[in-house]
Amino acid sequence: MLDALFFRRWLTATAAVVDREAERLTELDSPIGDADHGSNLQRGFRAVATVLEKEVPDTPGAVLTLAGRQLISTVGGASGPLYGTLLRRTGKDLGDAPEVGPARFAEALRSGVDAVAALGGAAPGDKTMLDALVPGVDALDGPSGSFGAAREAALHGALATTPLQARKGRASYLGERSIGHQDPGAASSALLFEALAETAESTETPESTETAESTDGSRG
After folding, report:
1. What is the tens place of the pLDDT at every residue in 148-161?
2. How far is residue 19's CA from residue 153's CA, in Å, rounded to a whole number?
3. How crowded is residue 198: how many other Cβ atoms within 10 Å of its Cβ?
4. C-alpha atoms less than 13 angstroms from C-alpha of 86 in its C-beta half-sphere
5. Is 43 in contact with 4 (CB distance < 8 Å)?
6. Whether the predicted pLDDT of 215 surpasses 60
7. How far apart are CA 41 and CA 85, in angstroms?
8. Which pLDDT band holds residue 184 (cuts at 50, 70, 90)?
9. Could you give all domains of the chain from N- to C-terminal order, each with its CATH number?
10. In whole angstroms, how far apart are CA 59 and each of 4, 7, 158?
């Protein structure tokens, strides 16, 4: 089960990976955007990490809702409303449950992705963040879904935006000149799933593994 601490760790990990990749995101944004995607997200997720240290929400839904509000108030351009909507809608869908299972989280995250699609009027294939978000949540959803599979699917989706022509957002104004450039929003969305998988993997502590092995041994 995933509790508030798990989601706080996820968003803190996201802040760290965005920090690390900010320059690359800005480089991706330079030829088809405003060359500020990395710096904007870096500022926004740093603010999220800071506010989560101060307020410490006690449910998964409250963590994501607070993070979404912080992004909307901190990040300029389209990124703030889009990422803020993703997290706020996911948090709202989770409600007040103190813990949620991965399947329930995937269901709520899909509602967040749908809200992003509605806000931006975009669909997969339009060369936007949805090209990473949709395959990511698809891979997370269902009985065989996993955080690792979601990370791989989102990364593949982001890379697959390179040959596409943008049909939404600022890059769409470039027409065919947008072809050959990876979408920065898809690239940053893939980082969300990377941080999610890392958080899930780090939650499987050596102590819990030793306990499981000890329990299995006692059965023999």
Report:
1. 999 999 999 999 99
2. 22
3. 19
4. 21
5. no
6. no
7. 14
8. very high
9. 2-203 (1.25.40.340)
10. 5, 9, 30
